[in-house]
Design brief:
Layout lengths: L7 H23 L4 H19 L1 H5 L1 H21 L7 H11 L2 H21 L6 H86 L6 H26 L9 H8 L24 E7 L7 H22 L3 E8 L3 E8 L19 H10 L3 E6 L5 E8 L7
Parallel strand pairs: 1-2
Antiparallel strand pairs: 2-3, 3-5, 4-5
Length: 403
């Protein structure tokens, strides 16, 4: 493990392990019965110190395994020379568990504990339960400590990744909400300009044209009225350009029917943010969606087109996300005095009476109903569990736009 990545607690544990190893080596060297035992203790200490500061041991499991093999071999020689070396088994347990994979570390710990027990017996010590319990209990404590720490570390890493994902998701949601708010404000401004300024300028132009017709040709006011009518016409054209600029991008690439047809094509997903040509489902997923037009299409006011497109996007999004449908159909019908949009699917359905507003602030049924009713239309939902869903909105055609 790279020392730069250690927390203060892990640095303290690492230092304690070094001190434990050094203390036990000094004890083995002092209590050795021969100069060879003292010299071997020094060799073990040198091997341990070398491996502790080699970068390759911290970065490569292969290098760590080689170092542990050399350290273990030198420890076995020291163990053969003096029984005091068996206490070094305890720090060796931690090294093996920390540096080796679990499938290698557990057998290595078992072999180390067995070597410590055999050494104690081989040096002629009397057999007693402590001979076996001591090394085995130490091995069990080391295994439980290291494996428990590794489990806690993995859980901590999992939580850290989840927190990072939540932070990223929150940022994405905030950006999506800002974008949705921007689009909603653009649509509201387009609606207000169309329903107030554009309609007012159109009325002014009609009144001025009527005034021109009743004025005598030689009236001094005729020129002023003509210029006023031209100014009103120019400003009406400018207002209409504002309305087109503020309208949804889907409607910039053709008629409402064309935008609805693109909505049915395979693509990343429906919704107010979907670009032109983005359909409700990705490749290999979602329902098959078909679009059809009934009656003779007529040009609709921009607020009508915006409302119908947004309701279709939201209804189709609900179908994809919640209905588990295999087929869906969008039908745009032009009748004598109204235009109707129907979105029907064969999904699992629901009880419209018990539906609640979306908790995530989505464009749900109440919002679709409000959008339809704001234009004087009606919004209905027919559904039942297991019987699919039909969403229908009907808007009265304005005067002069009858089919």
């Amino acid at each position: 493990m790279d020392p730069r990545s250690l927390t203060p607690a892990l640095r303290a544990l690492r230092l304690c392990l070094h001190l434990l190893m050094a203390g036990l080596l000094v004890l083995a060297a002092v209590r050795a019965d021969s100069a060879a035992g003292t010299a071997m203790a020094a060799v073990v200490g040198g091997v341990y110190a070398t491996g502790s500061y080699l970068p390759s041991v911290r970065r490569s499991q292969r290098a760590a395994a080689a170092w542990l093999a050399v350290l273990g071999a030198s420890w076995l020689l020291l163990l053969w020379l003096t029984p005091e070396a068996l206490w070094l088994a305890f720090p060796l347990y931690f090294l093996q568990l920390h540096l080796l994979p679990t499938r290698w570390s557990l057998p290595a710990v078992a072999l180390t504990a067995g070597a410590a027990i055999l050494s104690y017996v081989g040096h002629g010590a009397a057999l007693n339960p402590g001979v076996f319990i001591g090394p085995l209990l130490g091995a069990a404590v080391a295994v439980a400590t290291v494996l428990g720490y590794q489990a806690l570390y993995r859980e901590s890493e999992r939580r850290r990744r989840l927190i990072e994902e939540l932070i990223e998701t929150r940022a994405e949601l905030a950006a999506a909400e800002r974008h949705a708010g921007t689009l909603a404000e653009r649509e509201r401004l387009a609606r207000e300009i169309h329903d107030t300024l554009a309609q007012g300028l159109s009325s002014i132009q009609l009144l001025l044209r009527a005034a021109e017709r009743v004025l005598p040709p030689d009236s001094p006011a005729a020129g002023h009225i003509g210029r006023a009518r031209e100014a009103a016409q120019d400003n009406l054209a400018e207002a209409r350009r504002f309305v087109r600029a503020l309208s949804p991008p889907d409607l910039e690439h053709g008629s409402l029917a064309a935008a609805l047809e693109r909505l049915c094509e395979p693509g990343p997903g429906p919704g107010p943010e979907a670009p032109a040509g983005a359909g409700p489902y990705g490749p290999g997923g979602g329902p098959r969606v078909r679009f059809s037009v009934s009656g003779t299409p007529v040009e609709l006011p921009t607020p009508y087109e915006v409302a119908l497109l947004r309701i279709a996007q939201s209804a189709l999004a609900n179908t994809v996300r919640h209905a588990s449908a295999s087929r869906a159909e969008i039908t745009l019908s032009f009748m004598d005095a109204s235009v109707t949009l129907d979105v029907v699917d064969d999904g699992r359905g629901f009880d419209p009476v018990s539906v609640r507003p979306s908790s995530d602030g989505g464009f749900g049924l109440p919002a679709m109903r409000s959008r339809a009713e704001s234009l004087g239309g009606t919004f209905t939902v027919e559904s039942a569990p297991g019987q699919g869903t039909a969403v229908a909105v009907s808007l009265p055609l304005p005067a002069g736009a009858s089919a």
